[in-house]
């Protein structure tokens, strides 16, 4: 499969990829986050660079090495990830949102460490984070070709397709995270690439190999759209 990888497929294109979790602070020592490892986004960045693109990775906190020839902007919160995504967006041809963005953040960040009180139940107030990929997809005529991910545990294609439409995306990568052999922290993954008029299934493979096949497919769909 690696031999079939078309090295020039994204030559001259600028690709922006979000990856990893976001971290939403509660106070100076605590945050809300999730188990995203960032592996899929980093593998996509490597594959896009290998396909000839100039690549900017906008990454939440992960423990991975930045692939060679990839420009990495490190962020923590969803709001920082949005700001980094919109920075220089005019230059972006292809935007791929692989990050597991926290849907909500604490309403307020306490200046000092929150102390344990006498109450048994503690309630947190959260407010919705901006939707980064929907914001980019909604930029209008100059918007980049926009690709999202959908991590689902049931009716995977159905929910992915409704996200594609709701967020105004060109493509969405549907990921069944109910299968413990694939997804979030695993080294392997299997996905279905969903567009308005077709579905392409990419069988289980290492995230590195799958990323190459995904970039190949995304590049093909992108070229079709610019014809
Ligand atoms: N996403 C984003 N900004 C957010 C939330 C999600 O850019 N604030 C992007 C993710 O990077 C992914 C896609 O949107 O590409 C779908 O994320 P997902 O969490 O599956 O969708 P949600 O709209 O948040 O729906 P839900 O979590 O309720 O399934
Ligand atoms: Ca979400």
From TrEMBL:
Q: Does the keyword Disulfide bond apply?
A: no
Which keywords does UniProt give here? Decarboxylase, Flavoprotein, FMN, Ligase, Lyase, Magnesium, Metal-binding, Multifunctional enzyme
Work out whether the entry's keyword set contains Metal-binding.
yes
Boundaries of every DNA/pantothenate metabolism flavoprotein C-terminal domain copy? 10-220
This protein's pathway = Cofactor biosynthesis; coenzyme A biosynthesis; CoA from (R)-pantothenate: step 3/5; Cofactor biosynthesis; coenzyme A biosynthesis; CoA from (R)-pantothenate: step 2/5
Give the CC-aspect GO terms: phosphopantothenoylcysteine decarboxylase complex
Tell me the superkingdom of the source.
Bacteria
**Residues holding CTP:** 103, 113, 130-133, 149, 163, 167
Question: Which segments carry the region annotation Phosphopantothenate--cysteine ligase?
Answer: 15-227
Q: Which reaction does it catalyse?
A: (R)-4'-phosphopantothenate + L-cysteine + CTP = N-[(R)-4-phosphopantothenoyl]-L-cysteine + CMP + diphosphate + H(+); N-[(R)-4-phosphopantothenoyl]-L-cysteine + H(+) = (R)-4'-phosphopantetheine + CO2
**What's the Enzyme Commission number for this chain?**
4.1.1.36, 6.3.2.5
Cofactor comment: Binds 1 FMN per subunit.
UniProt-listed GO biological process terms: coenzyme A biosynthetic process; pantothenate catabolic process
Recorded GO molecular functions are:
FMN binding; metal ion binding; phosphopantothenate--cysteine ligase activity; phosphopantothenoylcysteine decarboxylase activity
Q: So which cofactors does this thing need?
A: FMN; Mg(2+)
What function is annotated for this protein? Answer: Catalyzes two sequential steps in the biosynthesis of coenzyme A. In the first step cysteine is conjugated to 4'-phosphopantothenate to form 4-phosphopantothenoylcysteine. In the second step the latter compound is decarboxylated to form 4'-phosphopantotheine. Catalyzes two steps in the biosynthesis of coenzyme A. In the first step cysteine is conjugated to 4'-phosphopantothenate to form 4-phosphopantothenoylcysteine, in the latter compound is decarboxylated to form 4'-phosphopantotheine.
Question: So what family is this one in?
Answer: In the C-terminal section; belongs to the PPC synthetase family.
The name under which this protein is listed is: Coenzyme A biosynthesis bifunctional protein CoaBC
Species of origin: Marinobacterium marinum
In the record, what lineage is assigned to the organism producing the protein? Bacteria, Pseudomonadati, Pseudomonadota, Gammaproteobacteria, Oceanospirillales
Gene designation per UniProt: coaBC
């Amino acid at each position: 499969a690696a031999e079939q990888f078309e090295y020039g497929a994204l030559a001259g294109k600028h690709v922006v990829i979000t990856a990893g979790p976001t971290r939403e602070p509660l106070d100076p020592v605590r945050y809300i986050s999730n188990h995203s490892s960032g592996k899929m986004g980093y593998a996509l960045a490597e594959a896009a660079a290998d396909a000839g693109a100039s690549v900017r990775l906008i990454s939440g906190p992960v423990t991975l090495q930045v692939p060679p020839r990839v420009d990495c902007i490190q962020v923590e919160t969803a709001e920082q990830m949005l700001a980094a995504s919109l920075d220089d967006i005019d230059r972006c041809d292809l935007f791929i949102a692989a990050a597991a963005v926290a849907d909500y953040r604490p309403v307020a960040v306490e200046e000092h460490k929150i102390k344990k009180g006498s109450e048994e139940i503690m309630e947190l107030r959260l407010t919705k984070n901006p939707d980064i990929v929907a914001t980019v997809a909604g930029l209008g005529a100059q918007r980049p070709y926009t690709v999202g991910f959908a991590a689902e545990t049931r009716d995977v294609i159905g929910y992915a397709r409704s996200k594609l439409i709701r967020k105004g995306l060109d493509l969405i990568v549907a990921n069944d995270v109910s299968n413990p052999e694939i997804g979030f922290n695993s080294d392997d993954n299997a996905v279905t690439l969903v567009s308005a008029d077709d579905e392409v299934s990419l069988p289980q493979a290492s995230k590195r190999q799958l990323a190459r096949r995904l970039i190949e497919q995304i590049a093909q769909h992108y070229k079709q759209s610019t014809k």
